[in-house]
Structures are given as C-alpha cells and as structure tokens.
Design brief:
Helix 6 packs across helix 8. Strand 10 and strand 11 form a beta hairpin. This protein is α/β, with parallel strands linked by helices. The protein has 15 helices and eleven strands. The chain folds into two domains: 161 residues, Aspartate Aminotransferase, domain 1, CATH 3.90.1150; 246 residues, Type I PLP-dependent aspartate aminotransferase-like (Major domain) (Aspartate Aminotransferase, domain 2, 3-Layer(aba) Sandwich). It has a seven-stranded mixed sheet, with helices on both faces.
Length: 474
C-alpha cells in the first residue's frame, strides 16, 4: 500500500470509525452468532496475491461485525467496562503510527518521560502519598503478578531469583474469598503455589474480615510458614466490595508482610474526593493498581501500577545484557526493569490525550454521573415488590434478582439464570451474573462511556418486563 493509498483509506476508515461511535447502540449488544460460525466463513488459506482494502472492509462488515460483542454500546452492562473515547482512539492512532518500542529511555525519551509525568498526575489524582512511583502495565493481572514476585523476593531477601524456591521455606499469600482470579493465577506463576493462597472469609458486606486475616497469619507463623503478601481489593469483581485498608495494613506492618491493593475498576472513583475513604490507611500500602482502561475512558490496555518501593521492584526484574546497556542508565527510568515484559507500547500517549481532553473536572463529572445512575437503579429496584438487592451499592455495580413471593431458592436461581439468558439473547442489553451466598445474582454495571440515565431506565423496563414474562419456569 502506497502512502497515497494509505491516506485515501485512512480518511475512509475515520468516517467508518466515527459512524461506529455514533451508532454502536444500534447493533445487538451481544453477538448473536453461534460457535464456529465466523471461523467457517473465513477462507481455509491466506490469499496468494494482494487483495484490496475495499475487499477487506467488505469482509469486515459481512463476516467480522456480526461476531462482535459491542463493549462500546451504552446497553453494555456486563463484566466491568472496557471503555474507550474519541481522544483515546486518536492517541492510539498516533501510537500505532509512531510504532515506537518503549523498553527504555534511549528507545524513545519522550515515551519514558511522558509516562513518568502521567503517573505523577494519576498518583496525585487518586490520592496516593507522594512517596509512590508508578509505571503503566498492560493489565491488572500482570501488575498483580509483578507485586507478588516483588513481595516474594523481599520476603526471601531476594534469594528466589538466584536459587529458586526453597521447599523448606513455604511462602503464604492472603486475599479475601471475593478476590479476582488473577490472584490465584499469580501465585501459580510466581511459584508460590495455589495451595499457599489463603482465602480469608468476608464480613456481611462481603469485605475481607481483618480479624480472620490476623488469625490466619498468626497460625501460619506458628506452623513455620512465611507470610509474604496480602492482596486487598478495593471494588471486588462480583459486587465492588471494599476491603478495609487501614486494619489490613496495620496487620501487614506488624507482621512485615507486603500489602498489595487491587482497585482495578473502582480505583477510578478515587479521583472523587468523596470516595477517598476507600483507601483510608494508604500509608501502609506497598503497591497499588487500577485500570484506566476500565472506567477512565482509555483503550485497553492500560493499567496504572504504583509502589512505594520502586527499588525492590527494579531489583526483582532488572536484567542488563550488553545490548541494553546505555550511557543514561541511573539518570532516567528504564521501564523495562519495572515489570515482566521487555517490550513496551507507548501507552502513556492515549492516557495523556484522555486526561487533557476531558480535564479533571470532566472526568469527575462522568464518574459521578455513572455512580448516580447506579443509585437511581437501586431506587427503581427497591420500588418493586418482586425484586430484591443482594449486595450494597457502593459505586456503579448493582446486584439484584427477581424474587416473586413463594418461590423456593433453587427455583429462584434457575429462574434468574433463565432471565439473564433471555435478556442477553435479545441483543438489547448485556448483563452478566455472580453468585452471592448461593444466590444466582443479576449484575448490572453503569460505567460505559456514553451511558445516560435514559439508557438505564429503558434497560430496567426491559428487565422487569422480561422477568415477569418468563414466569417461574421449571
């Protein structure tokens, strides 16, 4: 493709992109295709000769688009959002055009220094102490793994990287029973082992019980285990429960245990002064993450990872072969030493674009609006005698179920599962579920970039109509 052809198709593609942004809500929000349908429509072998961009876009519309679940639709209420926005997309376009590999300062000084500045902005916006330093990781799973490995090294005086894990010195990691699955994956990959992940029971509000945590650590120490890391969650995946950071942190300091905080989705709410309570006790946090690619309108992938002990993080991950030695080492941040991958994208650019385009007040306005929509949905649920809330509404996640009187629990679970499938199969909205105390729970997230209260009210009308039409079932 020549630059003239690129210019022509790029203009066409921008028109397609803008049209999609305007019309994402007109597609069935959840793809309606069956397993294997897209695969069977694709050729069995690649073309031997060049094909036109027009042909590619024709196949895009006819084959690919029917198999897309539209995360940018305002009718997407599932999982957590994976938001984007026009300024983020424009930033991604610049990043893709530059094609920079940002593994260290020398490979693109602007990328390293913009990232350093952006992480200072974010640190101050969410209220972490000034002693924290930050780096952009690709995902919360990677950031949690980086925290676990750093905690492992610090607990063992940095011997595991050199000697391997000593089977006579078993490390232990602690999280609540509501923690994200990335914690379990992290203890597997780090070599600590799934059997050494201790899941602490939760209180009535589904947050970690600090007393049970203290007891578990104490018991493990008596039995010769080495407590290594506690992972607290600010905004659990199922219900956005908030673990109490202050008492957990005090337990960690007393026992010399690394405290990592996973605030993947809820962390964005910390830009609001009224939600700073979620990290009360922040002075005892060792590492912290949240995902601008969830609720700060920035394309995936973009995880903000902070630590108060960057020296331990770097000591854990740095490797310096001859071909990576530079004259500026020690004067600048070489972010390849701050995590697992060597190669790094220029992720700071899209985040810079978003923050500058919205401004802090614009970001706060949108986040407050999403939180108010969840509060309004809660009110609508409470007005109906045959629906009930199943968890506190803290930020933008509402957990509820259809519960007509006289129906036993097992049938209620089957009924709500049937309702969930009916709603998703309609293509009009997309919900996911969780299970709370054995109850199948419908889970609705009001966090999509372009969501309005009108969308939420129409979704609720559809939920009520579908639930009552579905009946008790069998």
């Amino acid at each position: 493709m020549t630059t003239d052809e690129f210019r022509k198709h790029a203009h066409e593609l921008v028109e397609w992109m803008a049209s999609y942004m305007e019309n994402a809500g007109r597609y069935p929000v959840k793809s309606q295709v069956k397993p294997g349908e897209i695969f069977s429509r694709l050729p069995s072998s690649p073309p031997m000769e060049p094909e036109s961009f027009e042909k590619l876009m024709k196949d895009m519309e006819e084959i690919i688009m029917p198999g897309i679940t539209h995360w940018q639709s305002p009718d997407f209420y599932a999982y957590f959002p994976a938001n984007t926005s026009p300024p983020s997309v424009l930033g991604e376009m610049i990043t893709a055009t530059l094609g920079a590999q940002c593994m260290n300062w020398e490979t693109s000084p602007a990328a390293a220094e913009l990232e350093e500045k952006i992480m200072i902005w974010l640190r101050d916006l969410i209220g972490l102490p000034g002693s924290f330093e930050g780096v952009i990781q690709d995902s919360a799973s990677t950031a949690t793994l980086a925290a676990l490995i750093t905690a492992r090294e610090k607990a063992t005086a940095f011997t595991v990287n050199e000697e391997g894990i000593n089977p006579g010195r078993t490390l232990r990691v602690y999280c609540s029973s509501q923690a994200h699955s990335s914690v379990e994956k992290g203890v597997r990959i780090s070599g600590i082992g799934r059997r050494n992940l201790v899941k602490i029971p939760v209180r009535d509000d589904l947050s970690m019980d600090p007393d049970r945590l203290a007891a578990a650590i104490g018991e493990d120490k008596k039995n010769g285990y080495l407590p290594c890391c506690v992972i607290a969650t600010v905004g659990t995946t199922g219900t956005t429960a908030v673990d109490p950071i202050r008492p957990i942190g005090e337990i960690c300091r007393k026992n010399h245990v690394w405290l990592h905080v996973d605030a993947a989705m809820a962390g964005t709410a910390l830009i609001l002064p009224e939600f700073q309570w979620m990290i009360d006790g922040r002075e005892n946090i060792d590492s912290f993450l949240f995902n601008p690619h969830k609720w700060m309108f920035t394309n995936f992938d973009c995880t903000a990872f902070f630590t108060r002990d960057a020296d331990s993080l770097i000591r854990t991950f740095e490797i310096l072969p001859e071909y990576l030695k530079t004259r500026t080492r020690g004067q600048v941040n070489d972010y390849r030493d701050w995590g697992i991958p060597l190669g790094r994208r220029f992720r700071a650019l899209k985040l810079w674009s978003v923050i500058r385009s919205y401004g802090v007040n614009g970001l706060r306005d949108k986040i407050r609006a999403h939180i108010s929509f969840a509060a309004k949905l809660k009110e609508m649920i409470l007005k109906e005698n045959d629906f009930e809330l199943l968890a506190p509404v803290i930020i933008n996640v509402v957990c509820f179920r259809y519960a007509p009187q006289g129906v036993e629990e097992e049938k209620l679970n089957l009924l709500n599962e049937k309702i969930n499938h009916a709603l998703n199969d309609s293509g009009k909205i997309f919900l996911t579920h969780t299970v709370i105390n054995g109850r199948y729970t419908l889970r609705m997230v009001t966090g999509q970039t372009n969501l309005t209260l009108d969308h939420v009210e129409r979704a609720w009308e559809l939920i009520v109509k579908t639930a009552r039409a579905t009946g008790i079932g069998s």
